Give the backbone structure.
Amino acid sequence: MNRFLLPLAAFVLLAIVLGVGIRNSDTKGVVASPLVGRPAPQFVLPNLLDPDTPFDSRTMAGRWYALNVWGTWCIECRVEHAALVAAKAAGQLPIIGLNWKDDPTSAVAWLAQLGDPYEATAVDAEGRVAIDYGVYGAPETFLIDPQGIIVHKHIGPLSAEIWERDFIARAVSR
Amino acid sequence: MNAKVVALALLAGGLFAGALPAIDTTQLPDPALQERYEALTHELRCMQCQNQSIADSPVGLASDLRREVAEQLVAGKSDTQVREYMAARYGDFILFRPRLSARTAWLWALPGVLLLAGGVIAWRVVRQRARLAANDPDFNADDSER
Amino acid sequence: MEMLPELGHFALVLALLLAGLQAFFGIAGPAFGRQRWMSAVIPATAGSAVMVVTAFACLVASFVGFDFSVAYVAQNSNSALPLIYRIAAVWGAHEGSLLLWIVLLAGWTIAVAFGASRLPQHFSARVLGVLGIVSFGFLLFTLATSNPFLRLIPAAVDGSDLNPLLQDPALALHPPLLYTGYVGFAVAFAFAIAAMLEGKLDQTWARWTRPWTLAAWAFLTVGIALGSWWAYYELGWGGYWFWDPVENASFMPWLIGTALIHSLAVTDKRGLFKSWTLLLSIIAFSLSLLGTFLVRSGVLVSVHSFAADPARGIFILAFLVIMVGGALALYAWRAPLLKSDAGFELTSRESFLLFNNILLVIAAATVFGGTLAPLISDTLGLGTLSVGTQYFNPTFLLPMLPLIALASVGMHANWKRGRLAARGRPLIATGLIALAVALAAVFGYYGGRPGLALASFLLGAWLVLSSLVDPFDRLRRRLSMPRAIVGMTLAHMALGVFVISVTAVETYTTERDVAVAQGESVEVGGYTFRFDGIDDIHGPNYDGVHAIVQVSRDGKPLATLHPEKRRYFVQQSVMTEAGIESQPGRDLFVALGEDLGAGRWSLRIQVRPLINYVWLAALLMALGGSIAASDRRYRTARAPATEPVGAGQGSTA
């Protein structure tokens, strides 16, 4: 082979990589979680609205549920909140809130004002459980199956369509 | 309110997080531990800002992860254990020094392969040119080049 | 005045059309042997350049005149922005910086048009034609995806301000210098394409190309150094190089450009490495284009990125495929014709320049691999990964250390023959002095931590001393001292200084991040830093605080530092401004952190030895490059028709 063709061949490969890079560039900033397909970390944390009984994630065993990471400081959380409230009203899948590094008073006020979509809200004041879940930005939402396995992770605000497609469809189909 | 929203949105966008360094005054009990702490926090990526290490970033998650690193080191964990702990939760994306594995072998092999190839090319070219020089009767006669 | 943006827009459209004509006449004229077409190249080139400058002037005027009815101005300026930053704001974001790119290309093109009057007309027409294609592509890109003249209806009451990060003198100058370097490689690229279209490449060609390449390289060097200096005092980390994708995007063309300068020397002197030199000319500019692509398309995550837009990415990729793909296809077709039978011995200068080129290309390829690895890994389905300093630092040293060692020796090699033994004495003598210096520095002055530091000090000092041998020899023997030699000596010495200073900074920096209350002192690197509290500061478009830090040594006060934190009004973003005391041997660096409550603040304190010599060395390198570029030899190089054909090598086809 003509060795002078090698640079051109290398460039063609590079162009393909760059092309694929452009195609994927809208998903930049979304990093796939290594936790999908693995057991959800178990935790016991204070319950936001019921300080006397801590929330224990083991009580969710045997049920499908969603774990929604939020905080009142998070703008996108406000965006998705209506969708969560609607999901709660539909009643197909329980949602557990993980209130991440937040001020409890503001968090209670938020739920009182905007509606409470959660079956229970665990308070992760120090962000340790969030680290176990590999959370790097709120909102993030995990779908967990009756065996306690993380089936899906959604990064960014939820909408009715995403909820239906990625959460309800998966939980009901199995 | 509005300005705050913009500022936070920019912060989330990463660029402006970059403008403000974190100054981390954590002091571990012994100097050797402190040195490992500083090295480790510099090789873990801040996930939110996407282009800084957790040592350099002022965002909340970065300081939580620094605390995690400090606690694990004090508890006697090895550097590798800390790295694996982080990668198990955040994926390999969090490691600025890619772990050696089948998936990253090409990257770590690259400099060596390039040096090897370069060596072979250099040897072949020099041998060929030296042979041309040896076989060229004018080579030593022509002394015009400085 | 009212219609300036429309005038600018119209000028851009005209510039596009004229660049199209410049490209067409420049390429088609010589191809079909049409004399009149070739004669039309210069007018088209001049017209296009005038239109580009007009458009740029219109944008500058809109910024200076606070025309917030122009969307780009409204997004990047503000009524409180000082004049120099209103001008710098022209290239403060994607659209305007693209226009700056085009203006600088026009500048290079006009310079080539003047310089090319000595060249055969068909050749200079081809060179200008290729530059016309580049200009056409970028103008089309600007008009199609990134027009800076779009109106905002209704006009904004006030602008949303220039990114405060860019409100700094060094960063105002960084893009023009960097782009001048980037774009300058377009000239070597155009010379390469023209030579391949002619099917002929001789030593004269190399002599024409050398000064242009040196000039572009010098600008790129200063541009990179300025950006690095800015990052040091503005970002507050105290570092000067982060291996960020965008930094790498400017560094790769620099490495290849450096290789090109050296391979051009061989092609010029011996008529060797011809196809290799062509390839490097193509790659240097291709990497400039790739850098533009990486920064603006959003495929890589970086601190410096412009707002990402896939549509722009697709356009630049298409342009990249046409330009680079076309050039490399032409290369595959034409390069096999360029053969030379000239020989050289193992220890001749040609050999050393060959090693230089191979090692520089390896270094560039390593940076390239690391920079694109996240993208490549993602594309191949191998998962997401990150590549940072911890990868680049050791892998970059691998080719660099032998390169620096070989440079000290290679400078003394003769062309063609390996009579290195004759130069053995000065080499050994300088090597021994360098070893003594390195030992004294490591064990005497800085104290401890040998190993890599010792080796690097040795190599750096050896390079400095070794590069002085030849000039001294010439002085002693009263030989002439051409500027090419002066420039080369300066650049090689500067590289030695660079190696020494980087080694000192990386090995012997002492730093501490501390929490202090007013009146408290901290010892760092033998200096005492006393925190004397916080004061308010007020700027034209920001306010903030600065700390008062007294530095003293052995009880004697040395300086008062004022590290700042500024809050810019419009974007409400906080910026740091480090407080730095520069001494001949070290920098004392203090950055202000957060208010920790109860009167305590966090401070980052660093004592960085020799750090200023890192940038000084870069400036010296650039100075060396520009002195070499002005050598008489290049200016008197005539077209082959008026000069005896050199040494019988070269031309084919």
Remarks:
- Residues 203-234 of chain C form the longest helix (32 residues).
- Confidence is low (pLDDT under 50) at residues 639-653 of chain C.
- Chain C touches chain B through 68 residues (CB under 8 Å).
- The longest strand of chain C covers residues 527-538.
